[in-house]
């Protein structure tokens, strides 16, 4: 939570000094993985703050732990510095979030609450007047990561976080 407040404080002066841009983004990959994603962004000048909620079911190929089912849900905040005109183009940013991770094996389950902090890089491409697409990747750490026993096996929770994805968005006129 402290990281989210810090991100907002850093962006506040820039957001107040320029015309406000409002957009809505979704992550189609989350929907393909039986989840959801909805983010609301506020931008001004070269800065953008994003608040979002997300969930997905992770296939074994994504989490790499044989015999486990895993899903997560959570919310987060992003702060991006953009380098293109009107918030488009290259974006470098920071992200903080809180997730609940549910891991299952056979008829047993465990739930973990994980904080996340990461740096991210992406490129926002306009698709017509109001739509855009933004492929991005975040690299960071899980806070509170620990291994947990689930039945007769152990889920080995990594500390490192690498998260590539694509967001599709609509900027309000």
Keywords, please?
single chain; mainly beta; Porin; two-stranded antiparallel ribbon; 10 strands; 14% helix
Description:
With 173 residues, the protein is mostly beta strands. It has a single domain, classed as Porin (Beta Barrel), CATH 2.40.160. 14% of the residues lie in helices and 63% in strands. The chain contains three helices and ten strands. The strands form two sheets. Strands 1-2-3-4-5-6-7-10 form an eight-stranded antiparallel beta barrel. A two-stranded antiparallel ribbon has the order 8-9. Strand 4 and strand 5 form a beta hairpin. It is elongated, with a radius of gyration of 17 Å.
Quickly describe the structure.
It is built from 3 helices and 10 strands; from the N terminus they run H-E-H-E-E-H-E-E-E-E-E-E-E.
What is the architecture at the second tier of CATH?
Beta Barrel
Task: Kindly name the structural category.
Answer: mainly beta
Q: What is the overall silhouette?
A: elongated
DSSP strand count: 10
Write the layout of secondary structure elements.
Blueprint (H helix, E strand, L loop, with lengths): L1 H16 L3 E6 L1 H5 L3 E9 L2 E12 L1 H4 L5 E14 L6 E17 L2 E20 L3 E13 L4 E3 L2 E3 L4 E12 L2
Antiparallel strand pairs: 1-2, 1-10, 2-3, 3-4, 4-5, 5-6, 6-7, 7-10, 8-9
């Amino acid at each position: 939570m402290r990281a989210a407040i810090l991100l907002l404080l850093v962006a506040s002066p820039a957001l107040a000094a320029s015309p406000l841009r409002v957009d809505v983004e979704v992550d189609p990959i989350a929907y393909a993985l039986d989840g959801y994603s909805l983010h609301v962004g506020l931008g001004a000048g070269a800065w953008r703050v994003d608040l979002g909620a997300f969930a997905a079911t992770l296939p074994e190929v994504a989490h790499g732990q044989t015999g486990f089912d895993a899903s997560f849900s959570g919310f987060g905040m992003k702060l991006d510095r953009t380098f293109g005109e009107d918030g488009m183009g290259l974006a470098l940013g920071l992200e903080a979030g809180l997730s609940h991770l549910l891991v299952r094996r056979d008829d047993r389950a465990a739930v973990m609450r994980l904080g996340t902090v990461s740096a991210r890089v992406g490129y926002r491409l306009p698709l017509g007047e109001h739509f855009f697409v933004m492929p991005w990747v975040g690299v960071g750490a899980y806070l509170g990561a620990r291994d947990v026993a689930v039945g007769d096996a152990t889920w080995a929770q990594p500390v490192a976080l690498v998260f590539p994805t694509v967001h599709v968005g609509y900027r309000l006129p």
